[in-house]
Write a structure and sequence with these properties.
The complex is a heterotrimer of chains A (168), B (315) and C (377). Chain A has 168 residues and is α/β, with parallel strands linked by helices. Chain A has 4 helices and 4 strands. In chain A, helix 1 (46-55) packs across helix 4. Classes of the chains: A alpha/beta (168), B alpha/beta (315), C alpha+beta (377). Bound molecules: iron/sulfur cluster (SF4) (4 copies) and FE2/S2 (inorganic) cluster.
C-alpha cells in the first residue's frame, strides 16, 4: 500500500503536530516539494567522497543533510529512527567499503546491525526504500553523486514520510 | 517442532532437597544469601532472598515457580559475599546471560540447578476457578495452554550453569525455533502493521517492568534513564513510545534469551515477544545462527563474517 | 467538588433516576456531545480506563472489578503540555525573543463508571493539588470541569480492601452521581438497570439534563423508594475480601519508629524497581516537568514520575539521597502510610487493589501494612 502523505492534523493526538526539520514550505506554486534526507557519513571515506564530488563540481541534489560520524560503526540504530521521527523523508548511511574501514572492522559490525535495522524498520512500518546504506570511498565522488541522485528520486516519488507523532 | 511440557511429579521432593541444600550453604557460610522463591500472599511463589538457615525453610519449588532470579544479582554487586541461587533450564539461560555479559563474577556464585520439564503461567492459573486450580496443581492433567509460553519451545531442560544438581538430568530433544507470531505480522500489509504497533505502543504505560525484569537489560546505567544524552523523551507521545519500544527490543537483539519474562510482567498485557522475536528470526535468516536465544561466547552482533549479506544489495 | 478533607459522609441525594443497562451506550453518546467522556473499556484484552473516542479500539466494560489503570489520568494526564513556545524576533528591537502559547483550556470531562475507591482517591489528589499554599492551575482547571459518575461495586474481588480505609463498595465520596445496580450486589450481578443518584449540584445537572433524559435516564417507578434505600445500604455494607485479612489499616504511629528498620531491606530485595505500582495507583501523584524542543519550538510538559525509579531524586551535581532500592521502597510505603497522614490526616491509599493485582512480584501495600504491625520498633 502506498504511504499516505503526512498524517492529517485532526487524526493526530493533541500537541503532536509538526516536525523538527524545517522543510521547504510545501504547496508553494513556485517550488516543488523536496525531500529531506539525513545522511550519516563516515569521516574517512564517504565524507571525503562527498567532498570530492563537491570540489569536482559534480551536479547532484542538495537534499542530503550530512552528519559526519567517525565510522559507519558509530551509527546507533536509534539515530536513524530519531531522524525519521524528526521529519526526515529518507536516511542514508555511507561508509568505507567492507575491508577498507579506517578502524579495519567497524563497518563489518555496522553491516550486521544495519541489516537488522533495515528489516526492523520495515517491520515497524517504515518503507525500506527510505533507508539505504552505501559504501563510498574517498575517491568515489562520482558514485556519491549517483547515490544521492538515485535516492533522491526514489524518495521524491514516495512523497513526504508519514508523521510519527512528536510532541512538537 | 513444539515441545510438550509436563509437570514434574517429584516437585515436593525437589523442594525439600532445595531447602536442605540452601540451609546447608547458609549455615556452613558458603553463601551469605540464597536467591529463591517463597510463597507470596496469594500462594503464588515470589522472589525471595533467604539469609539464614531458618529462612531457607521458607523456600518453595512448585509448578508456579516461574519468576527468574538472575537479574537480582545486579542488586548485590557491592561487596564480595557469595550468593546462592536456584535455577531451572531457562533460569540458567538468564543467569548465563548475566555471566556472559560479565555483569557478575562466577566465583561469587553457588548455583543450585533443577532439571525442569515445564512451569505453569501463574496468571493463567490464577484465572481458573478455585476447584480447577486445585485440581491442576495437585495432579493434573494440565492443559498445555496453561504452561508458560517459553516452555513450548524450550529445549534446555537442564541448567547450563550449576554447581549442584538436585535431580537427574532430563533427556534433551533439540527444536528448531519457530516464530509464528512474527510470521503473522510480516504477512500483514505494512501500513496495517504500523497501525497495529501504534496500538501496542499506545497501550504501554511506560512502567519499565519489562526492562527491569529482563536479564539482557543489564547495563550499569540504562540509556532509558539517562538525561544526557536524552535518548528517550519523557513524554508518552507516539514518537517517544515508539522509540522506547525500539530501544528496548534493539538493545537486547542478539542477547535476548526468549524467556518471555518481559511479556509476562507487563501489566497491560503487551505482546512484546512480537518485537523480540523479529530480531531472533532475522538473526537466523541473515547470519545463520540456529539458536540465537542461547547465550554464546560471542554474540551475533558482537562478531561478523566477511561474507555476511551485503547491505548495498539490500538497497 | 469538596476540598474539605474531613467530609465524606454520604450527603442527601439531590436527584434519583433509573437507566437500563441497555441504554448506557446511548447515554454515553449523549454525554459525549457536550464533554469528553472517560470510561472503563476493554482494550487489548485488558480492562483500561480511557477516554471514549469513536473509532478507537475498546468496548465499554462497566462490570470489570478494576481497570488496570486508574481514572487519575483524566485529571492528571501521564503527559500534560503546560505551555508551548516558539523562537521569534521582537518586532520593535529585532532582538530574539520567545512567543509563548498557553495550552488550550481544559475541556469538560465526564469520568464515567469510576469505582468508589477511585473517586475517593480524587479527594486525596485534590488535597495535594488544591489545598495549602500552592494551587496547581492545570489540575484545578481540569478538576473544576469534571463530573464523576461512580458505579457501586457489586462483587469486590480478592484484591479489594477499601473497607480497610473506612470506605465501602457503595462509597459516595467525591462522587457527583453514583450508579447502583438495581439487582443489588452479588457475585454474578449483571444488573439490567441502574439507579442513578446525584449527590452534588453537578451530578444533579447531569442527571436531569435533556441529553440524559432523552437517552433513557428516567424517573424510577414511584414505589421503588424503599428498594432503592435497601439497595444503597446493601452496597454500603458489602465487605471486601482482602480487608478481612488486612483489617483496619492504622499504622501511622507504628511507622514513626520504623524508618531505620531492617525490614525495608527485606521488602526491597524482592522489588524490581519498576513503576508499575505507582503508575497504576489512583493516589500516586509524583511528576516531573521537562521540555521537548526542536527546530525553534518546544513544549513544556508534565509527566508522571515514580519514586521507584532510580534518578527520581537525583539532584543537579549528581547527588542522590535515595541511591538504593531499599530507600525507594521505603519511600513509597512510608509516604502512603505515614508522611501523607502527618501532612493531610489521610492515608494515601484507598484499597483499590491495583498494586496487589499488577505488581509483577506480588509486593504490595496491604502486605506491607499488615507486616509492619508485627515489627519491633
Ligand atoms: S511492562 Fe508493559 S506497560 Fe510497562 S513499560 Fe513494558 S511494555 Fe510498557
Ligand atoms: S524475552 Fe524479554 S525478558 Fe527475556 S531476555 Fe528477551 S527481552 Fe529480555
Ligand atoms: S513494588 Fe512491584 S510494581 Fe512496585 S516497583 Fe516494586 S516490583 Fe514494581
Ligand atoms: S497503594 Fe495499591 S491499593 Fe492503595 S490506592 Fe495505590 S494501587 Fe490502590
Ligand atoms: S571508518 Fe569508514 S566505515 Fe569505519
Amino acid at each position: 500500500m502506498a504511504e499516505s502523505a503526512a498524517t492529517p492534523a485532526e487524526s493526530r493526538p493533541p500537541g503532536t503536530a509538526g516536525t523538527a526539520v524545517e522543510k521547504p514550505p510545501a504547496g508553494e506554486e513556485t517550488r516543488e516539494w523536496e525531500p529531506v534526507i539525513v545522511g550519516f557519513l563516515c569521516n574517512w571515506c564517504s565524507y571525503a567522497g562527498a567532498d570530492s564530488a563537491g570540489t569536482a563540481r559534480m551536479v547532484h541534489p542538495t537534499n542530503v543533510r550530512i552528519v559526519r560520524v567517525p565510522c559507519s560503526g558509530r551509527v546507533n540504530p536509534r539515530f536513524v529512527l530519531r531522524a525519521f521521527q524528526r521529519g526526515a523523508d529518507g536516511v542514508l548511511i555511507s561508509g568505507c567499503h567492507p575491508g577498507d574501514c579506517h578502524y579495519s572492522t567497524g563497518n563489518f559490525y555496522a553491516r550486521r546491525r544495519l541489516l537488522l535495522l533495515k528489516g526492523y524498520l520495515e517491520y515497524l512500518g517504515i518503507d525500506p526504500r527510505r533507508f539505504r546504506t552505501h559504501w563510498v570511498s574517498a575517491s568515489e565522488g562520482q558514485k556519491w553523486a549517483e547515490v544521492v541522485r538515485s535516492m533522491c528520486e526514489e524518495v521524491k516519488a514516495l512523497g513526504p514520510a508519514p508523521s510519527l507523532g512528536n510532541l512538537v | 517442532m513444539p515441545n510438550n511440557p509436563t509437570l514434574d511429579k517429584n516437585m515436593t521432593e525437589t523442594e525439600t532437597a532445595l531447602r536442605r541444600e540452601a540451609a546447608r550453604l547458609l549455615s556452613q557460610g558458603e553463601v551469605a544469601v540464597f536467591l529463591g522463591h517463597e510463597e507470596g500472599w496469594d500462594g503464588v511463589p515470589v522472589p525471595f532472598a533467604a539469609s539464614t538457615a531458618a529462612e531457607a525453610g521458607r523456600l518453595v519449588w512448585n509448578p508456579l515457580s516461574a519468576p527468574h532470579l538472575a537479574k537480582y544479582l545486579l542488586d548485590r554487586l557491592e561487596g564480595d559475599e557469595k550468593v546462592g541461587i536456584v535455577v531451572n533450564g531457562c533460569g540458567s539461560l538468564a543467569l548465563d546471560r548475566i555471566l556472559k555479559d560479565r555483569r557478575f563474577p562466577r566465583e561469587r556464585l553457588h548455583v543450585v540447578g533443577i532439571p525442569c520439564s515445564g512451569m505453569l503461567d501463574p496468571a493463567r492459573v490464577a484465572a481458573l476457578s478455585d476447584e480447577e486450580r486445585e485440581r491442576v496443581l495437585k495432579d493434573g492433567p494440565v492443559d498445555p495452554g496453561l504452561f508458560l509460553d517459553r516452555c513450548s519451545w524450550c529445549d534446555v531442560p537442564n541448567p547450563v550453569v550449576s554447581d549442584t544438581l538436585l535431580s537427574e538430568p532430563l533427556p534433551v530433544v533439540r527444536h528448531r525455533p519457530e516464530y509464528p507470531r512474527v510470521a503473522e505480522l510480516e504477512a500483514m500489509d505494512r501500513e496495517e502493521r504500523a497501525e497495529y504497533l501504534r496500538g501496542l505502543y499506545e497501550r504501554c504505560i511506560r512502567c519499565f517492568a519489562c526492562r527491569n525484569v529482563c536479564p539482557a537489560c543489564n547495563c550499569r546505567e540504562c540509556c532509558l534513564d539517562q538525561w544526557e544524552p536524552l535518548w528517550l523523551g519523557r513524554a508518552t507521545s507516539p514518537a517517544e513510545q515508539q522509540m522506547f519500544h525500539f530501544i528496548r527490543a534493539f538493545d537486547v537483539a542478539g542477547r535476548c534469551i526468549r524467556c518471555g519474562e518481559c511479556e509476562r510482567v507487563c501489566s497491560v498485557g503487551l505482546p512484546l515477544m512480537e518485537l523480540n522475536d523479529k530480531f531472533l528470526k532475522d538473526i537466523t535468516e541473515l547470519f545463520g545462527v540456529e539458536r540465537p536465544h542461547i547465550p554464546a561466547d560471542v554474540e551475533p552482533l558482537g562478531c561478523f563474517e566477511p561474507g555476511d549479506p551485503d547491505l548495498e544489495d539490500h538497497g | 467538588m469538596s476540598t474539605s478533607l474531613a467530609s465524606g459522609a454520604p450527603t442527601a441525594p439531590k436527584a434519583v433516576r433509573l437507566v437500563r443497562a441497555a441504554d448506557l451506550g446511548r447515554w454515553l453518546d449523549a454525554l459525549s456531545a457536550g464533554s469528553r467522556v472517560w470510561a472503563p473499556q476493554s482494550v487489548g484484552g485488558r480492562p483500561r480506563y480511557r477516554e471514549l473516542t469513536p473509532g478507537r479500539e475498546g468496548r465499554l466494560d462497566l462490570e470489570a472489578v478494576r481497570t488496570v489503570d486508574s481514572p487519575k489520568a483524566a485529571l492528571l494526564p501521564q503527559t500534560e503540555p503546560l505551555l508551548a513556545y516558539r523562537r521569534a524576533k521582537d518586532p520593535g528591537t529585532g532582538r530574539p525573543s520567545l512567543d509563548l502559547t498557553p495550552v488550550p483550556p481544559a475541556e469538560p470531562v465526564v469520568l464515567f463508571g469510576v469505582r468508589p475507591c477511585d473517586a475517593a482517591a480524587v479527594e486525596l489528589l485534590d488535597g495535594v493539588f488544591l489545598t495549602g499554599d500552592f494551587v496547581d492551575e492545570h489540575y484545578k482547571a481540569r478538576r473544576e470541569k469534571s463530573v464523576i459518575v461512580t458505579v457501586a461495586c457489586s462483587a469486590p474481588d480478592r484484591a479489594c480492601f477499601c473497607t480497610s480505609f473506612g470506605l465501602s463498595p457503595g462509597s459516595t465520596r467525591e462522587a457527583d452521581v453514583v450508579l447502583y445496580g438495581r439487582s443489588g450486589p452479588g457475585p454474578k450481578a449483571e444488573p439490567d438497570a441502574y439507579y442513578c443518584v446525584a449527590y452534588s449540584d453537578r451530578g444533579e445537572a447531569l442527571l436531569t439534563s435533556e441529553a440524559s433524559r432523552s437517552a433513557g435516564v428516567v424517573e424510577p417507578p414511584a414505589d421503588e423508594g424503599q428498594k432503592l434505600e435497601d439497595t444503597v445500604a446493601a452496597f454500603r455494607n458489602l465487605p471486601t475480601p482482602l480487608a478481612e485479612r488486612v483489617g483496619r489499616v492504622d499504622v501511622v504511629d507504628k511507622l514513626d519508629g520504623l524508618f531505620e528498620s531492617p525490614y525495608w531491606e527485606k521488602v526491597a530485595a524482592r522489588c524490581l524497581g519498576c513503576g508499575t505500582c505507582t503508575f497504576v495507583c489512583p493516589t500516586c501523584f509524583c511528576f516531573g516537568v521537562a521540555d521537548c524542543a526542536a527546530g525553534g519550538r518546544g513544549v513544556r510538559f508534565r509527566y508522571w514520575d515514580s519514586c521507584k525509579f532510580p534518578h527520581f531524586l537525583r539532584m543537579a551535581g549528581g547527588h542522590d539521597p535515595r541511591p538504593h532500592k531499599k530507600h525507594r521502597t521505603r519511600q513509597r510505603f512510608m509516604h502512603k502510610l505515614n508522611y501523607h497522614y502527618h501532612r493531610y490526616g489521610r492515608y494515601l491509599c484507598v484499597g483499590c487493589g491495583r498494586c496487589v493485582e499488577s505488581c509483577p512480584v506480588g509486593l504490595h501495600l496491604p502486605q506491607v501494612a499488615d507486616e509492619v504491625r508485627g515489627l519491633e520498633g
